[in-house]
Structures are given as structure tokens and as C-alpha cells.
Amino acid sequence: RLAVGVALVFVLASLLGAGAQPVVSTKQDIAVFSLGYYGWFIPFQALGTIDLKIQEVFSDIGRFRVFGTAQRLSSHGLQQFIDALRRTKQGNVVVPEQYQFGEAFLTKAEFERLTGAFIVVVPVVTNFAVYWDAKAATWHCSITTGFTFIDVAHDATVIAVESIDTSGSDKTSMNSAVMYAINAIPPQLEYKIRSIPQFQISTRILEAQGPTVKIQLGANMGLKKGDEYAIVEKRTFGIIEDTREAGLIVITDVSQQVSTGRVLYASAGLNADTQLKEIARQGVDFDLYFHSSGGQMLPGFRMTASRGFYPLRPFVGIQIPLGNAIVTTVVDIVPVNAIFGAEYMIPIGRFHIAPYAGVGLTYVHIAVPPIGYESDSLTHLGAQAGGRIGYLVSRDIRLYVDVGADYWLPLDRIHFREYGGLTIGAGISFKL
Hints:
The longest helix has 18 residues, at 2-19. The strands form four sheets. The protein has an eight-stranded antiparallel barrel. Strands 8-9-12-11-10-13 form a six-stranded antiparallel barrel. The termini are far apart. It has six helices and 23 strands. The chain is of the alpha+beta class. The radius of gyration is 28 Å and the shape is flat.
């Protein structure tokens, strides 16, 4: 009896331990149809480019084993395909030698190959327009692409339907306008994929030493510097298991199978096997701020690249020197400073310090409504440097103060004056 009791204890301990093990994502099999476009005229070269870029996104994102098909489904054919998948999953269906889904045909072998994937993705164009804007003397192109994600492994359930709107314009070439619209698809598609819960990376801490942690998975699953992972805490209430976010980690370095992270905050101590969950972001911090420099008021915004960059992060910014702006019924003078630079991010828990520097140009639009006169010109060259101290008030928002210096040199000293000096300011940052 003692031996049986000890054995039962070990079995129960084993089962409980197995239930507490963290989840670690592995690559999923995914099949991607070619782009369906029935009802829309799309240049053949553009069609091939869209197909290639869509395939590249699913391949480069790192978390899938991808195989594609040359077949294209229309919106009507998509529903027929889903219905056929469901009938096949339910069994007792005579499998034909050839399927027809709208305008597309699949052989029995092609259909079975697709149903062998865990997920099937069907992209379909729902809008494609190219037109010449005579007033602006510009070609414009707009594309709306729908993506339907079908979980073939579980009764052909549609797990997500995403729509991506892109546009492009060019003054000299229609083809260039189309390509600009096409090139805008991949970054939006990647973000959409990473936002779908079934595709988000789950992983665990391998080792914790103070604020530095080693994390299972790396470039082999598409992790990048600047990615953020939530620390997940599991609680059990009776027979209900609940989870909540209990902290935040930013990825600071990535190797092939292991990544290094920095703990920004955590509500409890961390150890090996702590569960982590990917937070999908577009990879940009959007800052709104108000600066004062040498008596000049400078409201503005800044966009800093966060995904793929750490600790050096490039940024672009726009600010308006209010002291040089004139808006009346007679004349409008609107100056805008465009700034390009980089910051060096140093996190210290919820706080961070970020020295930064940048250079810029001032663009001025002058309009005289009574006589219909308008002109645009570059008026200043500028530079700025300083430091930022920020505090992470929540997972997605920072508050910060800036101290530094600005200097703006006029290109035309007859009509414009230099300005700048000690800069102080404050703002709010949204992690998008």
C-alpha cells in the first residue's frame, strides 16, 4: 500500500507539473493561395509582384512553414472552398477528381495538399483603382486586399478576416503609383498577422539575472530587437484558469534560438519557465511634445523606429516654430521644421534615459489669398541635441521631459532670422 501511495503521489505531481509547464510556440504549416482578383483589371506584372510580396511576408515572419498554390480564388469561390473543407472534415464525402471554386479549379491532389496544412490563407482583391488626377497632375492607385485565415485542422473555422488598404501616387508614371501601393502591403500584412492571437509567439524565460533575462526562441521564430513580451501570470479559481499581464520585457539582443531581454517592470520575481506572450506592435513610438527654445515655441511630433532597433533608434520629427508663423486674412506664412536623427535608449526599470541628436530643414509655405499667390521654399538649416528622461506609466504610454539645445541657421538672412538656444520641453509617447 505504501508503494502504491508513493506511486500515486509521483503521478499526481507529474500531472500537476505538466499542467504548469509554459507554452512555447513552434512553427505552423500554412498554405497561401495566389491573389484572387476576379472582377478587377490588374496589370499582369503588378499581379505577380503582389503574389511575391505576400509570400515573402509569410516566409520572412519566421513562424510558419509556407507552401503556396498558383490557384486564385474569388470572394464567391472562397466560400465554396470553405464549405468543401467543412464537408471533408465531417467525413462520408465522395472526393471528386477535380474541384471548382468559382473560376478556379483544383485537382484532388492539390485539394488534399492544401487540407494538409494547419492554416490556409486566401488573399482576394476587393478594390483596385488607378486614375489620373488632372488638378494635382498626379497618378493615384488604391488597393484593398482581404485576407481570410482558415483553420483547416479544426473543422475549417475562419479564425480571422483582415482587410488592408494601401495607396500610392506618382506625378510621372502610372506604374510607379501602382508599385508604391503594392510596396505598402507587406508592413501592414506582417502587423496584421502578428496581431492574430493564434499566431502570436508564446515562450518562456530560460534564465533570470536581475533585470536581464534569457528567453527561449530567437531569429528562428522571427524575434527582433525592440519586440516586447508580456509576463503572463496564471491563476486558478476553482476549475477556472485565468491569466493576466504581470510585467513587460523588451528584447535587446537576438541570436538564432535564444534572445536576451530587459525587464521594464514586473509585479513578482521571475524565474525559469515564467510564461511570456508576444505583444504585437507596428514598431513605432509616436511622440507628441511641446518645446521652448530661445523664446521660440515649438510644438511637434516625432516617430521613432522601435522594432528591429535597439539601443540606437532612428527617428523623424515635425515641429512648428510658432514665432515665425503668420496667419491673417491677407497673408499666410506657415513654417515647418523636418528633423532626422537618432536616440540611444537606456532603460532603467520603468524609467529610461535617451540622449538624442538630429539635423533638419525648415520648409515654409507662403500664400496671399487676395491675389491668389502661393510659394514654397526652404529657409533654414538646423540641428538639435539633448537628452530625454521618460517614465512608463502603462504598457503603451510614456511621459517624458526633454532638455537640450536647438539652433536654426537661415539660408536667406535678408528675410529670415536665426533662432535657437536652450531647449526644455515635455510630452507623451504612444507605443504603436
